[in-house]
Amino acid sequence: MHSNPQSPDGLTLRLILGDQLSQYHSWYHEVRGDIVYLMAEARSETDYVKHHIQKVLGFFHAMRTFAEELRQKGHRIIYVQLDDPHNQGSITAECLYHIEQLKASKFEYQEPDEWRVKDELQHMCDSLSIQSSCVSSEHFLSDHSIWSKVFTGRKTRIMENFYRFMRKHHGILMQDSEPVGGAWNFDKENRKSIPKTVVIPEPLCFDHDVTELASMLDFMKVHTIGNVDASHFPWPKNREESLELMQYFNQHLLPHFGTYQDALTDRSWSLFHSRLSFSMNVKMLHPREVIHSAIEAWKSDPEHISISQIEGYVRQILGWREYMRGIYWEYMPEYAKLNTFNHDRQLPEWFWTGKTDMHCLSIAINQSLDHAYAHHIQRLMITGNYALLAGIHPDQVDEWYLGIYMDAIEWVEMPNTRGMSQFADGGIVGTKPYVSSAAYINSMSDHCKNCKFDPKKKIGEDACPFNSLYWHFYHRNRNILGGNNRIGMMYAVWDKMENKEAILKQAEEHLNAL
Ligand code: FAD
């Protein structure tokens, strides 16, 4: 909270960031003539990383729709388009310009989710001669005090401790003080590959024409990655459509969500996943309503939706999503530089094109380019797994994930990428690296059947590269991982393995060819 007192009379300028499209925020409870809301499409935001074209379109489309909805409710809105001749180029420059233009006597903003934006706005406010204040975004289910209650005095930041606290604190899936269903976790029932006979529903896609917006981005030379059919844009534009997507999930996908949440297949790009991360991350939906609506669906149809499905889902939102935010704010800005393994290899060019013979990677990358979406296990156990085994610099891995996904905002992207996926934080998020050989991918997917590489071979031209890279990773990082008692078994296996030299040579050849 900044406070540079001046006359409270006059206009207040309130900034709405592109990921703050929450109709439920208390700001909008009353319509006031002395409050002007500012929304801006800023070049600083389109350019700080190369984004997927669908991500830029999705944000601007939703921002424009939100501005129009507020306007129709009677709020005073200034909306600055990217191609506006008076566009100031950055969020802070835009704020300063409009404070001056309006002669505003007060500036207010909602707590940004990203460290970079928060820092810039704080600095700007420090330099203002008018009163300014930062209010809560009213979006999250945890805050610093909850984080402290769970972790003060503890050496480790284990998600499970946080999740159980959140369940009790919010009384979600609790009966008295016990977890509903008698267990906190139903992972054993939830880790299945998907049989051919299971029918996977089509993802619900909207059908918007955003060709004008796409032409504007083209005209403004915004550099993007990925593909789009701008005349059939699939992502929700507002809260109403996000609610529709949520209901679609509850009805058609939740009954199998938990069971197949770790499954991978050539048959579908989203399986039984909700695709609600974009709607939640830009705050068109509140995580509380997403959780409660799913619980309602489970309660009204317990025959088709088992406790393991609903628990698996609640864990992702009440647990992982909030936990990642806590990690981000506890460890930033240092977190952005962590590189425990000193990995320094360049990200292969084919991460940007999808042109690789490794079928699982080709599927995950191509669908990311086509849909700006991959589900969690693709991100973690296919692309992330490969990047870690291959020793790619975490900055490059972060940049790729931050650009390519519809839902990628740094507060949630970075702890997932640098922490959970790359173990670059040395074990703050995970107790051991999420790596696997081809055996895991083969057991969880149908990818290997359509691949030119053999998942069972470690050596030879047709050996799956995941196998030799897997052992190369453990071998080269023994000084860091050797003492980790969750990994001891792997080193015992490696020590007894025949052909060690040949396996390492096979991996070296693959890496040298990258
Ligand atoms: P579902 O599988 O339907 O899950 C429901 C919701 O749970 C999601 O919408 C999401 O809000 C939440 N959730 C699930 N897992 C996580 C998690 N690990 N962390 C935080 N929230 C979670 N998620 C993002 O929102 N933005 C990112 O930029 C992002 N980057 C990631 C990068 C890597 C390397 C990895 C491994 C994961 C990343 N995730 C990210 C987490 C997760 O993969 C996505 O939230 C999820 O795939 C989004 O698809 P969905 O909405 O269909 O999720």
In terms of topology, how is this protein built?
Elements: E1 12-15, E2 35-40, H1 43-47, H2 53-72, E3 76-80, H3 91-102, E4 106-110, H4 115-126, E5 131-135, H5 144-151, H6 159-170, E6 174-175, E7 178-179, H7 211-219, H8 239-257, H9 277-281, H10 287-300, H11 307-331, H12 359-371, H13 376-389, H14 394-404, H15 410-421, H16 438-444, H17 465-476, H18 478-481, H19 488-496, H20 500-512
The structure holds flavin-adenine dinucleotide.
Your description of this structure?
The protein has a five-stranded parallel sheet, with helices on both faces. Strand 4, helix 4 and strand 5 form a beta-alpha-beta unit. The chain starts with 11 loop residues before the first strand and ends with a helix. The chain is mainly α and 514 residues long. The protein contains 20 helices and seven strands. Helix 10 packs antiparallel against helix 11, helix 11 packs across helix 15 and helix 12 crosses helix 13. The radius of gyration is 24 Å and the shape is globular. The relative contact order is 0.10. The protein binds flavin-adenine dinucleotide (FAD).
